[in-house]
Amino acid sequence: INFSDQQLFVDNLIDITPRKKVLEKLSENEKYLDTIFNSINSGVYIVDPATKEILEINDYALELLKYEKKDLIGKKCFEKICTADKKSCLGEKVSNCLGENERSLLDSEGNEIEILKSVKEIYIDGKTYLLETFTDITALRENEEKVLEREEILQATLEATDDGMLVLDEKYNIINSNQTYFDMWQISQDDFVNLSALDAVKKNFVELKNPLESFRNIQRVIGTDDKLLDVLFFKDGRVYERYSSPIFKKGFRAGRVWRFKDITPQAMAESKLRELNDELEDKINESIIELRISEG
After folding, report:
1. Which residues make Cβ contacts (< 8 Å) with residue 189, sequence separation at least 6?
2. Is 44:118 a contact under the CB 8 Å cutoff?
3. Average pLDDT over residues 141-145
4. Which segments of the chain are extended strands (E)?
5. What is the pLDDT of residue 242?
């Protein structure tokens, strides 16, 4: 500036210390959020709902999908990782994308990975984006298949036995059974829909020669860790051996298994043998008496 015919220079000094601190704070917050974003033990990526471009993705997702970050950022999800085609993906309403469901993603080698996916809307600077999080459930599916396979093997084993098998929980709900059990007791599975297992079995107690004793034996072991072994005699001549033992889960009683074995042929053979023994003893006694009489 000119002052009294002299040219002077004026320095305008502004203290930017507060602004610098704000910028540093923002940078720290960004690093902090970035650390959290990449520390989440789930896949996370942000998608533009209009273009379906991937705007951000975390390290967990990159590792699972076997991609470098530069290979996905700015790319459309249906071109790289989604199993949905372009037409259905772009034509889908945002509202239909939201929520939780099971899907599949493609890794860089083209392998499908089963995931449980959750999609939510987020708002940044007034614009809507989709925050998609997912968890790999491949191992869960494999475990479910193994459990199903074990259950099928167990059921096949139960059906292969000649004994009637019934497994109940502590509330008398059926955990497992085989058809032999229902055939032996002449009960339909529908009976167990309308009645508790205990009430359904009690319907048949009238067919027993010793119904009261049989029911008391059940009451004695229900709710305990005791085992039961007894014999049921039916009025029509059937004879069943009954065995029961509690089952435990993680150290706690979780129910009870009941096994019924038809021992009617064995019981009849034993009964016939006793009759023959009795007849033989009677004849021996008669012979002894006759011999004594003749000697006297």
Report:
1. 182
2. no
3. 83
4. 2-3, 6-7, 43-47, 54-57, 99-106, 112-124, 127-136, 164-169, 174-177, 228-233, 239-249, 252-262
5. 94
- The dihedral of CA 211, 213, 219, 225: what is its sign? negative
Indicate the residue type of 107.
D
* Both structure tokens of 223: 């709710």
**Hey, what's the torsion of the CAs at 202, 203, 206, 210, to 10 degrees?**
-20
User: CB 166: neighbour CB atoms within 10 A?
Assistant: 24
User: For residues 47 and 130, is the Cβ–Cβ distance under 8 A?
Assistant: yes
Residues ≥6 apart with Cβ < 8 Å to 125: none
7 neighbors 1 (Cβ within 8 angstroms)? yes
| Contacts of 227 by beta carbon, 8 Å cutoff, 6+ apart | 221, 243, 244, 245, 246
**Strand 2-3 to strand 127-136: parallel, antiparallel, or no bridges (unpaired)?**
unpaired
Q: How many CB atoms lie within 10 A of CB 96?
A: 9
Q: Which two tokens stand for residue 294?
A: 């003749």
| Amino acid letter for position 274 | R
Between these two residues, 234 and 273, which has the higher pLDDT value? 234
Q: What is the Cα–Cα distance from 137 to 113, expressed in whole angstroms?
A: 8
Distance from C-alpha of 177 to C-alpha of 167, rounded to nearest angstrom: 6
And the tokens for 138?
Answer: 């491949």
- More confidently predicted of 41 and 293: 41
DSSP for 110-139, written as a single string: S-EEEEEEEEEEEEETTEEEEEEEEEE-HH
Average pLDDT over residues 92-119: 82
pLDDT of residue 259: 93
